[in-house]
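Read as chain and fold; for instance:
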Amino acid sequence: MLAIVAHELRNPISPVMMSLDVLALEVRDMPLDRDAILRRVAQARRYVERLRTDLDRLLDFSRLRTGRIDLQLAEVDLSALVVEELRDLEPQLRASECELRLTLEEPLKGHWDRMRLRQVIWNLVSNAGKYAAGALVEISTRGDDKSAWLVVRDHGPGIAASEHQAVFKQFERVKSSSHTGFGVGLWLVKQIVEALGGTIDLESAVGQGSTFTVTLPRTAP
């Protein structure tokens, strides 16, 4: 059912995005407030892209439930990808009033699935912005000859030790949180990271924030 819903809802998104792109090209040559119109078009496009990402998450969930995940492996710069994702997440982080601190090792290349890795970064950083609103969020990358690490640390309310394992399960969320959602984001992250031959670890305590550490081999699994 999830596969059918995600597929059918995804179909009209591409032509909508194409229409927005065409509109953006046309208004550049019109005697209007082009900057304002282009800003609105760009915002609408981001919303559509966000919807497409959410639908892809639903489709991924359906595939992973049956034990199937497709990987398109190629050389990817993890640090550059973090910067790209933060550009898209900037409105959300700004609305959450989060201070962002980056420590990125550049370049940091490995043989990974670019789209899947983007999902990992998006989920971890958006969760930090959501649950640690108004607090500092630190993102760092580093690597050695064999492995690369992505660390997302927030200074929010933290997660009780009894809930550490639960947050990576399907349909589970932090019980003390008032936020809503599918409850599959961190589960999806764990499935992707493990499919890439890596691991994800959580260090957290109530009142002390949360640190998610992703460890990835730099060569194909």
User: Anything to note?
Assistant: The first strand starts at residue 73 and ends at 77.
